[in-house]
Amino acid sequence: MPPAVPPAVSADPAWADVDRPLGVRRVLSRVVSLCLVELQKLRHDRSELITRAIQPSLWLLIFGTTFTRLGNVPTGGVPYLDFLAPGVLAQATLFVSIFYGIQVIWERDAGLLAKLMVTPTPRAALVAGKAFAAGVRGLAQALIVFVLAVILGVHLTWNPLRLLGVIVVVLLGAAFFCCLSITVAGLAMTRDRMMGIGQAIMMPLFFASNALYPLDLMPRWLRALAHVNPLSYQVDALRGLLIGTPAHLLLDFGVLVGATALSITAAAGLLARLSR
Amino acid sequence: MSNPDPGEEHGPPAVEIRGLRYAFGETTAVDGLDLTVHSGEIFGLLGPNGAGKTTTIRAITALLPVPPGVIEVFGRDVARRRMAVRRMIGYVPQQLSADGGLTGAENVALFARLFDVPGNRRKAQVAEALEMVGLSDVAGRRASTYSGGMIRRLELAQALVSSPRLLILDEPTIGLDPVARAGVWERIAAVRAQTGMTVLVTTHYMDEAEQTCDRVAMMHHGRLGALGTPAELIAGLGIENGSLDDVFRAYAGVSTSDESDDRDNGMRGVRAARRTAGRLG
Q1: Cβ separation of B194 and A7 shorter than 8 Å?
Q2: Reading across the β-sheet that carries B89-92, which strands appear in turn?
Q3: Is B136 within 8 Å of B89 (Cβ atoms)?
Q4: Which is nearest to A96 in space by CA: A40, A165, A176?
């Protein structure tokens, strides 16, 4: 077959300096690229945003408004619906993230994972890319819950600094639960098993946290569980930032950053096992 | 490293494998493989399902853990220089694996980003890759609307957008109809003519290999059976009107159309075929 253009056999393109080490900037740009893909997918198909918003909406509309009438949940002086809104916001991001393990297994089965792993991208960057892609989706869900809560008359903050804090907390929370899910996927290995495990850990994570009720209300064993559940710290931070209840912001951020770093490491370690 | 073929250009070979062994638990997938792929050739790794072809590919791309000193790609040890090796490789896996939620152009742009194609060159590079595989017209459509043959060509564009030195294709025509198959091989040949890149391709369709490959290696049960140009191997049989299919039968002892008695890796092959069928169906 006659070549259409003269062959460019000799040199590699300038960007393919194969022997140069990757460096922090390039690793970060890969993480951003993988998040960008998530935004592009969201833009093409917005239906998922709506269907995923149904469950948190029900928690706010039905559970929230009904329990507000109960009137005796010790929320520290704020209306129950106000107390609940940050919890449901955290839940919405948790439910989005926990399915990323299933997605990774699907991508493994479809050959997408192997293709990504053969690019010059460190495993931790691949996982971090997924994690913050989950964060992007989590933010979209959080926005819907936020708007709904405002419509229901919840007094949420409009302070831009606090809202920035909310964005960071949502990103970190989503990233952590995404990597937790990928880690579990790396152990479960098959989609069917992962579906079951996803369902099995989702509700306990939600119930064994301060999302629906204050920790003081819980029996001691449950309170102990809630204290090691990163969701509690996410909710605590969100509540402090959004409705101004007393929160341990420094501790919350510390726990979320630590948990995210740990889970990225664990998930990256298991990614090779998944693709083998 | 000594160059086994003094007629070749100097510089390290594209792939140099010395004594590769790999086992999945009890089953040995590759059992002491020595192989050299010269720079600039289209090299076909042939054999039935379960011969160890895919395992060899996965070892070259460092998807499987391989000890140092076994595989080099353009002179870089795969075990020690994983990132450098991957920068030189464009890889198309066996399954049809474009992201259906993204457009064709977005699928290709992701790989341009992951290979550090700079922002000011990205758009042109993506357009060129899509042009090469004949998908420019549908670049804005989501990949979920593509046919199997189009997805395979899209994957080819994804692998080409970084201008790799070595293009690795694992069973590029499996699960495609005859027209789509011919289309894929045409593109592969055209890309090589255009860029001069090295192509390493696995297949168990002997007629396709015979038409496109410069040299082929016959693998069976994880070992190398025969190595040479298709013409050499066919001539070596000493029969009239022979084909690579006859060569295959002579070395492997089975016909390519009768692969049901594979032992090594058989289930993996079946699983992969089912995935492909599932995505196509």
Answers
A1: yes
A2: B89-92, B166-170, B198-203, B42-46, B215-220, B223-228
A3: no
A4: A176
Considering chain A, what is the average pLDDT of its residues?
Answer: 90
Does residue B29 fall inside a structural domain?
Answer: no
Residue B20 falls inside a structural domain? no
The pLDDT confidence band at residue A76, using thresholds 50, 70 and 90, is confident
How far is residue B207's CA from residue B199's CA, in Å, rounded to a whole number?
17
pLDDT of residue B268: 46
Determine how β-strand B166-170 pairs with β-strand B89-92.
Answer: parallel
Q: What is the pLDDT of residues A191-213, one digit of tens each?
A: 889 888 888 888 899 999 999 99
B64 shares contact with chain A (CB less than 8 Å):
yes
Q: Do B194 and A4 touch (CB under 8 A)?
A: yes
Alpha-carbon dihedral A240, A244, A246, A250, rounded to 10 degrees: 40
pLDDT the model gives residue B229: 95
- The DSSP secondary-structure symbol of B142 reads B
Q: Tell me the pTM.
A: 0.86
Q: How many domains in chain B?
A: 1
Q: Whole-angstrom Cα distance, residue B158 to residue A118?
A: 12
- Beta strands B198-203 and B166-170, pairing class: parallel
Q: Quickly count: other Cβ atoms within 10 Å of residue B26's Cβ.
A: 5
Cα A272 to Cα A127, A245, B64, B268: the distances in Å are 11, 43, 8, 17
Beta-carbon separation of A30 and B114 below 8 A: yes
Q: Stretch A31-50: mean pLDDT, rounded?
A: 91
Residues above pLDDT 70, as percent of chain A = 95
State the smallest CA–CA distance between residue A144 and chain B in angstroms: 22
pLDDT recorded at residue B196: 86
Within-domain flag for B12: no
State the nearest Cα–Cα gap between A95 and chain B, in angstroms.
20
Q: Domain of B120?
A: 41-51+82-280
Regions of chain B with pLDDT less than 50: 1-8, 255-281
Q: Is residue B61 part of a domain?
A: no
- A119 touching B (Cβ < 8 Å): yes
- b/e for A97-115, b at 16 or more Cβ within 10 A? bbbbbbbbbebbbbbbbbb
Pairing type for strands B42-46 and B89-92 reads unpaired
CATH number at residue B212: 3.40.50.300
Check A16 against B190: CB less than 8 A apart. no
Q: Which residues pair with B228 in a beta bridge?
A: B216
pLDDT at residue A7 tops 80: no
Please tell me whether residue A74 adopts helix, strand or coil conformation.
coil
List pLDDT tens digits, range A85-121: 999 999 999 999 998 999 999 999 988 999 999 999 9
Mean pLDDT of A164-181: 97
Distance CA A246, CA B109 (A): 46
Contacts of A177 (CB under 8 A, 6+ apart): A93, A94, A97, A98, A134, A205, A230, A231
What ipTM score was computed for the predicted complex, to two decimals? 0.88
Chain A residue at shortest CA distance from B98: A112
